[in-house]
Structure formats: structure tokens, C-alpha cells
Amino acid sequence: MTDLFPEVEVNDAQAEAIARGLFAVAKADGNLHERERTLISEFFASISERPSDLAALDREAAIAPATLALALARGPVRQLFLMTALLLALCDGQYGPGEAALIKSFAAALEVDDAQLTELTTRVKEHMLGQLSHLQNTDATVAVARELEV
């Protein structure tokens, strides 16, 4: 299985834009789950020279898709954002219509069409399912696969 997140160089401005976009996705369904908060914080810390300030992100207005697109000018960084946003949206087990609509609007602004977004979504779901492949409880793995629609 290929690595979901290939090595992509991200500068601090891009890291902040990604964090703002992820925060917007996490809040799109009206609930900011602790798992989502942790994922955003860990992701930001892994690609930035400084720790994330989620309280500051909470105070800021949600990043507009066009603003995100300006900050993420290169294809690999754009793909990294979208896959991370999809992972974030799926991690709480409920990929709601608000999250889906926001990710779709971000994808459009990032010049990623519906077919490409569907492919990225499938890759993220397969990666998530692959994390369960070592489990003995195959019934649970099958149930998760059905829920992810993989």
C-alpha cells in the first residue's frame, strides 16, 4: 500500500492556511470533536516550525475557498490539504453534508474536479480501512468497510 501522504514541502504560511481550512471542515457539521481537534493540532505540528494555536483558529473567520487556493498554489500541497480534510471529516465516523459541501467548494477553488475528488476520497477510505487489516475481528472490519462505502 502506498503512503497516503507523500513527502510534500510546506511553508509556514501554507501550514497556517491548511490548519484554517481543516478547522473550517471540522466545524462544518456544527461540532468540533476532540479527535478532530487532535488531528488538526498534530498535523500542524508535523508540518510547521511552531505549535498550532487552535484557540486563535476558533476566533478567526473561516477561511474562504478562494483564500485557501491563493495560499496553496502548488498541486501537491493542494492534494495534501484535500486528503487531510477528507481524513478529518471521516475520522469521527460521520461525514456530514456540511463537511462534504465545504470540501467540495475547497476542491473547486483548488481546481480539483469531482472525479479527482472522488478518487482522493476513495484513497483516504482505503487507507483508513487498511489500518484495520491486521485485526482478527473480520466482521468489524467488514462493517467499517460498508460504513465507509469501500
Task: List descriptors.
150 residues
The secondary-structure element order is: HHHHHHHH
Low-confidence stretches: none
- Percent range for β-strand residues: under 5%
Please give the largest β-sheet: none
Report on this model:
This protein has 150 residues and is an all-alpha fold. It is built from eight helices and no strands. The radius of gyration is 15 Å and the shape is globular. The mean pLDDT is 81.
Task: Sum this structure up briefly.
The chain is an all-alpha fold.
SSE layout and pairing:
Layout: H1 12-27, H2 34-47, H3 54-59, H4 65-71, H5 75-91, H6 97-109, H7 114-130, H8 138-148
Helix pairs in contact: 1-2, 1-4, 1-5, 1-6, 4-6, 5-6, 5-7
